[in-house]
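<context>
A single protein, sequence plus fold
<sample>
Here is the protein in question:
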Amino acid sequence: MRQLLSAGLFWVVAVLMALGLAVMWLALRDEGPRVMAAFIPTTTPLPPTITNTPTWTPLPSETLPPSPMPSPSGTPAPTSTPREARFHTVAAGETLFGLSLLYRISADSIAQANEFDLNAPIQSGQSLVIPWPTATPPLESVLLEINGQPVMADAANCEIITIQEGDSAYALSAIRGVPIEAIIAINRQTQESISLLQPGDTLCIPKILYGDTIPPTAGPSPTPSLTPPPGGPALLYPADGATFDAAAGPIVLQWAAVKDLAEDEWYMVEVRDLDDRDSLPHRGFTRDQSLRVPDEWRPGGAGPRRMQWQVSIVAVTGRRSDGGFIYTFRGTAGAPSYFSWAGTD
């Protein structure tokens, strides 16, 4: 029995092996062409390691404290309100020189205000801007005798008035209660010149001191003596009442000297057309004892015109921005003289 079981197990195993080989043979027979693949290891690059690159971070700079703001200064003094421009329409025969004497400013200032050359001719009908003069009155206290009583016109408390259209020294004297004699004396004016003030001129209205309020003057005498101002030059030519027709040559005014002029003193010659009360006087300045009257001063209108002329001594204290003189009167004006002059029409 043992031998039979061993033989049977042998044949069972043999059959199973045969079947397995048969199955393998069939499988290999039906298999397509085999592709041989070779697996070669490749190097796989590793991602780079992220390295933090140190960067330079600037240290915070020191912040300076804000500079202190300047404290607001005091309110600036108000500036004077500029006056409206004035214009002049040129008439036939007028020149820059004549206009400069008419308005008491330099010809150069008129040329500059109108932006043309000083030597350029002006045309009839042309409208010109005329700058305003800026006069500076003297500020010197003056001792006077008014109605037999000594008074002092005190310049230390002087009120500066700018003359407006329609103003006059006599009206200001009445309004302010200041004697006209004091206004004339402290401003170095005369009875005639004080009436010729024009808009834009300035005038000192002084404070009047009486009796014990008058300060004593230095010196042995406690009472100041009144020194009359020197008289003006005596007029020589033309003779009073002379007549000049249209064909007459140039008129040369001449006068006698009353003293030697100081370095800052000039003769101021004023010529006024009495038949035209609204006209301004012509004014010329010279250090000689004569003045050739410019033809531009010849009055307009038909027929002879009555002209008044007089000479004063003035001290020139400087120049205005427009080139004209800043001056004060030295003494009184000379007595006026008169002549007739044919008009331009």
